[in-house]
Amino acid sequence: MSHIQAVCLMTLATLLASSGGVVTRHLEADASFEVTFWRSAFSALALALILTIIRGPALWRCLFRSPAVLWLSGICWATSFTAFMVAMTLTSVANVLITMAIGPLITALFVRFFLHHNLPPATWLAIVAAGLGIAWMFMGKGEANLSVIGTLVAMGVPFATAVNFTVLQKVGMDRLKAITPGGKPVQDMLPAVLVGAVLSAVITSPLSWPFQASVHDLRLLGMLGVVQLALPCLLMVRLARELPAPEISLLSLLEVIFGVTWAWLWTNEPLSVHTLQGGTLVIAALVVNELARLMRQNRQMRKAKMQI
Questions:
Q1: Residue among 11, 19, 263, 27 nearest 144 (CA)
Q2: pLDDT (tens digit, 9 = 90+) per residue, 11-53?
Q3: Which of 2, 222, 259, 297 has its Cβ near the most Cβ atoms within 10 Å?
Q4: For the EamA domain, which residue ranges apply (predicted)?
Q5: From CA 262, how far away is CA 268, in angstroms rounded?
């Protein structure tokens, strides 16, 4: 697919994922582990069905013989799934989103250190500007509950995501090498999302007893498991073949913009001046980063033509 198609699909993935915060606020239950269990369990069921349709029975025959890289990615998904929902019940949505905003910076550092990728200056500037925009969005929210425990739990999301995107980027690089004659087959990473959802459900199930979720909550958590978790994560894994890990992480900050918009539409939460200014800065950083990429691409094409 083209780069613009990949960016559009990544934007769709963040739009789907952004519903988590506002839907969580409509739950009747406040048991963080039970909420996490049901969301992960519904996601695992949806993923099992989707991946069986896509991959067929071979999915289950090969799953337990998969290499360590798939299980590492699965553990990262499980950490992200669990930490996000637990943090949402321990502190404010704003605090969780601000904490997650450091994800692109951590991802960029991991890719630079472990994969030895040189990021262009425009991408570094975009990461810093977007992070500042997220912080500015919530600077005026003095009512935000800055729970220390909630913040520490939320920190698990950007760290696990950074490791995961780095792993997916490495697999994507191996996939390019596999195209050449004699290249080795590359591990299919889509089942890693299923592994993550199952691990998250298994880990939180004993902590969720006795189950007390109402029918109302189960409906919302079922929607979250499919729409907010399973589909966006599958899209991200697929897009890791098309986009650099720091760019995927940077685009994921759109989840904050969409999340604030959902809160405004669904709960009539007013949009403050800080929110509008910070959101504008985030979008501007993403646009400038994309324009800089296009300029670099045009320069490379001109140099190639001159050499010919």
A1: 263
A2: 999 999 988 777 877 777 666 788 889 999 999 999 999 999 9
A3: 259
A4: 6-138, 153-288
A5: 9
